[in-house]
Specification:
Phosphoribosyl-aminoimidazole Synthetase, Chain A, domain 2; homodimer; alpha+beta; 2 domains; 60s Ribosomal Protein L30, Chain: A; seven-stranded mixed sheet; 9 helices; 336 residues; four-stranded mixed sheet
Chain lengths: 336, 336
């Protein structure tokens, strides 16, 4: 059989075959292989747990730099990592359109597995639904993740205070622009690929031996850096000011954004983290971050001030300060 | 605003408003209210954990006896309960079609909350995506759940042995027939409503003080009782024989199935459990089950035999034995 049919989602014989051949074969691990209604896990003693979920509806499902499979692993495990947790377990719920190519599903599952191995998590439980043609666009995946938080890690926007520094782990806007380019058939003189990748290693490097100096971390996905900073400012009841000149943006992204009238501060990222850290340790943390794969272009981009709580300002190259609000409206639906 | 628009899924300002107004208001609890990337949970010391997920794509989303909201809570917490766990935490991922009525979304969320309170779980983390018209059919929900397993509970199909008895907690086929009736515009002389409900209380009653006497539990959803018994027989490497006459089926369901040429053994259920238990305690367990709300019509329906591993037989009223295989093909897509 070449394509998914409704009976693959029936719970019956073809459903069991699909699970055996595609999912168990592709995601091989002992817990998933037991095929129970729930995965049974022994949590490590005395650690708090982080629990997060994300649905992935990205269009197109295969894009420059990744696909919906690895994205569904990185997206959820990145949320766990910026919460200070070591990601460990994932669930995966697939909703597939009748007629989807089984070979494409295998590609997606192989990509999930590779990503899971890179992050050090296992997909231990799952679910597959098939819906008729036109009732879902190709394939949607939901993952939920569990991680465990080492003692001493206490991240919260409420710990942010004036004087703290804002660090970003790399260049901004790559994912959003790559998807836009692919979807609209744009070609850029320098190809732009998604940054879709794990931030768990970056988070670990930042937390280092002295995690108390990291106040809070986030991953700036939908809504981009601007929206993430607004969330931090509102939840932390502080003001934040960033310097545009210090924010890393790839020349190709900057150029394309200028041409298309887009602002990279609002474009989605899928492998970046933003951290608010104690000022006295900021330079050292930046060095640590830059020494890790994926953190080479990390930058100190701004600071927390005692301005109006919730306000985010950007200082332009000319020294002018402007309010940088949350994303209004919708630049690009189905970005993740 | 009356309807969901794409910007409600953007991660930006309207997205935050929707989360505040619909989800936080509707599912109010402290952990969700912190709006972090992940919920932070303190697991109880020394207990194993069960982790499960399900996506709900039911068509129509509102049906006689329930809706996609309570179904998404019961579906996943039932999987935890039949694994021997006490359900505690849920994640919820919503994928909503542009144009969906916000009032309908509020109804769904209110129904989730009521179901969550009934089971004793909290929705602690979530995600909302909005996709364009025609890219998803109205609303899909994924939930993942975490529960904790009291010590002494050791359920596994590998513990099933010849002589064990098979118990079902109530009448079969109600959910499948209710959905079919609603979707096809059939009206039955006695109305049939979905059994959509929790099995956690039933599972607790069965496990009682001596959980070792329960070998394994399942909830017979997609594929019905026939498919569930086949899974148990295959995974447990045993044969199972059930007596048709002892299987509880509502007269209205039996009548409609006869008329439509359907077999209630293959229809989905959403509030039932099947248990394989030690023969010497089966009668006592049945009494316990019948004393619990929802278990009044529980029945002893068959037994495990030393026949061919994986074989499931049904004995008809005339005493004839027939093979009852897994569901082949697809009776009714989008049943849950």
């Amino acid at each position: 059989m070449e394509r998914i049919i409704l009976a693959h989602g029936s719970g019956g014989r073809l459903h069991h075959q699909l699970i055996q051949e595609v999912f168990l074969g592709g995601l091989e691990n002992r817990t998933l292989g037991e095929l129970l209604d729930a995965a049974i896990i022994d949590p490590p003693a005395g650690q708090r747990m982080a629990f997060s979920t994300d649905s992935f509806v990205i269009d197109p499902p295969f894009f420059p730099g990744g696909d919906i499979g690895c994205l569904s692993v990185y997206g959820t495990t990145n949320d766990l990592a910026v919460s200070g947790a070591r990601p460990r377990f994932l669930s995966a719920g697939f909703i597939i359109e009748e007629g989807f190519l089984i070979d494409d599903l295998k590609r997606v599952v192989a990509s999930m597995r590779e990503a899971a191995e890179r992050v050090g998590v296992e997909v231990v439980t799952g679910d597959t639904k098939v819906v008729g043609r036109g009732q879902v666009d190709k394939i949607f995946i939901n993952t939920a993740g569990i991680g465990f938080i080492p003692s001493g890690v206490e991240l919260s926007p409420l710990r942010i205070k004036a004087g703290d520094q804002v660090i970003v782990s790399g260049t901004l806007g790559d994912h959003g622009l790559a998807i836009l380019g692919q979807r609209e058939g744009l070609s850029f003189s320098t190809p732009v690929v998604s940054d879709c990748g794990p931030v768990a290693g970056l988070a670990r490097a930042l937390l280092g031996e002295d995690p108390a100096q990291v106040r809070c971390m986030r991953d700036p996905t939908r809504g981009g850096l601007a929206t993430t900073l607004n969330e931090l400012a509102q939840q932390g009841r502080v003001a934040i000011r960033v310097d545009e000149e210090r924010i890393p943006v790839l020349p190709a992204v900057r150029g394309a954004c200028a041409m298309l009238g887009l602002d990279p501060m609002y474009l989605a990222n899928e492998g970046k983290l933003v951290a608010v850290v104690a000022a006295e340790r900021a330079e050292e943390m930046l060095r640590r971050l830059r020494s890790v794969k994926g953190g080479e272009r990390a930058g100190l981009i701004g600071e927390v001030t005692d301005g109006s709580p919730g306000l985010v300002l950007r200082r332009t190259a000319l020294g002018v300060e402007r309010v940088m609000g949350m994303l209004e409206g919708e630049i690009l639906p189905r970005i993740c």
